[in-house]
Amino acid sequence: MAQTTTPTDPSSTADQAKDKVKQQAEQFKEQAQQARGQARSRLREQVDQRSTQAGERVGATAQDVRSVAQELRKQGKDQPAKLAEQAADRVERVGDYLKESDADRILREVEDFGRQKPWAVALGGLALGFAASRFLKASSSQRYQQSRSDPGYTSQQSLPSTSQPTETAPLSPTTPPAAGSPTASSV
């Protein structure tokens, strides 16, 4: 008796394809989670490094302000010296906070502040945007001057005009130029 092969069931092929797609989707999901975890880890490392560096700089600034306060005291200016000392104390506390805090603490406190005072965050973003726009506007004249002095710069006069062109009749070799045209005076 000869064996007959039955064609594969189309529904089982479709099920296999679905399973394969599910497996690939799970793999993609796992890879995305790993990438997200790595990005968070890098962000934390950067925040740790940057906050420590900023804390050291702020601490150095506090020392500078203290030396200014000492100079003011030497000059007999006790009230400004006292204000400078108070400012140095506050700056030093900020520097210590930045040096001692880890990324999780800093990010958590920033998030908490944003949740507690969303308008302050929005106004801060608005102020930063305004400052950035003023900076760009102030530097635009410098960029313009640099582009004008660049030998590869194409002037606006050589660019096609967006306004309506004026119609002029093309000159042919047999047509003499008009009496008032620049080419007529050069002939």
Can you tell me about this structure?
- The protein is mostly helical and 187 residues long.
- Helix content is 74%, strand content 0%.
- The chain is built from five helices and no strands.
- Helix 1 runs antiparallel to helix 2 and helix 3 crosses helix 4 (118-149).
- It is elongated and about 100 Å long.
- The model has no long low-confidence stretch (mean pLDDT 78).
Gist?
With 187 residues, the protein is an all-alpha fold.
Helix content: over 70%
Structural class, from secondary structure content?
mainly alpha
Order of helices and strands: HHHHH
Radius of gyration: 36 Å
Q: Which whole number gives the mean pLDDT?
A: 78
For the largest beta-sheet, the strand count, sense and barrel status come to: none
Task: Summarize the helices and strands and which ones pair or pack.
Elements: H1 10-74, H2 78-100, H3 103-116, H4 118-149, H5 182-186
Helix pairs in contact: 1-2, 3-4
Short key terms for the protein model shown above:
mainly alpha; 5 helices; 187 residues
